[in-house]
């Protein structure tokens, strides 16, 4: 009888590993950067696209604060879509122009726990620099690059 349960448990564990691997493969195919951030703003997980955007290995970012990795700061950013998603319990979308001139569309999506409280935030990062350049909307001024923020609140 115990052998039967052990066999079922082993098969269940094997199937969970297979499904995890399959899901992870699908997620890695998404062309956007994906980051999961905890309530204390630490990176819990990120896909390989973020690795390329940051020019860092995934293991270097896990358990670091997002503001340390993305902005090389020691405090939460003034304009922080993750903070807004935690506080306002809704999707937050921002277009941010970095000092390097790269422009990113950032979506911070709350992830709810079983008590319907926001436990984590998933951040989707899309490099839109080429699209903006093609439309001729990039201003070469350093002032504009450091302060170009457009917010869209999707709280319904």
From TrEMBL:
Keywords: Kinase, Transferase. It comes from the Bacteria. Pfam families: PAS_9. Residues 31-130 form the PAS domain. One of its GO terms (molecular function) is kinase activity. Residues 136-156 are annotated as: Disordered. InterPro entries: PAS, PAS-like_dom_sf. This is Sensor histidine kinase, putative. The lineage of its organism: Bacteria, Pseudomonadati, Nitrospirota, Thermodesulfovibrionia, Thermodesulfovibrionales.
């Amino acid at each position: 009888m115990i052998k039967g349960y052990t066999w079922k448990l082993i098969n269940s564990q094997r199937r969970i590993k297979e499904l995890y691997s399959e899901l992870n493969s699908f997620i890695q195919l998404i062309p956007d950067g994906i980051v999961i951030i905890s309530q204390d703003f630490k990176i819990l997980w990120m896909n390989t696209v973020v690795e390329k955007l940051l020019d860092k290995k995934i293991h270097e970012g896990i358990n670091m604060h997002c503001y340390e990795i993305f902005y090389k700061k020691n405090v939460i950013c003034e304009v922080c879509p993750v903070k807004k998603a935690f506080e306002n319990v809704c999707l937050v979308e921002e277009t941010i122009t970095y000092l390097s001139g790269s422009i990113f569309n950032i979506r911070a999506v709350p992830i709810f726990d079983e008590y319907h409280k926001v436990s984590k935030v998933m951040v989707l990062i899309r490099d839109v620099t080429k699209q903006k350049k093609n439309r001729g909307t990039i201003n070469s001024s350093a002032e504009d690059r450091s302060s170009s923020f457009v917010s869209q609140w999707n709280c319904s």
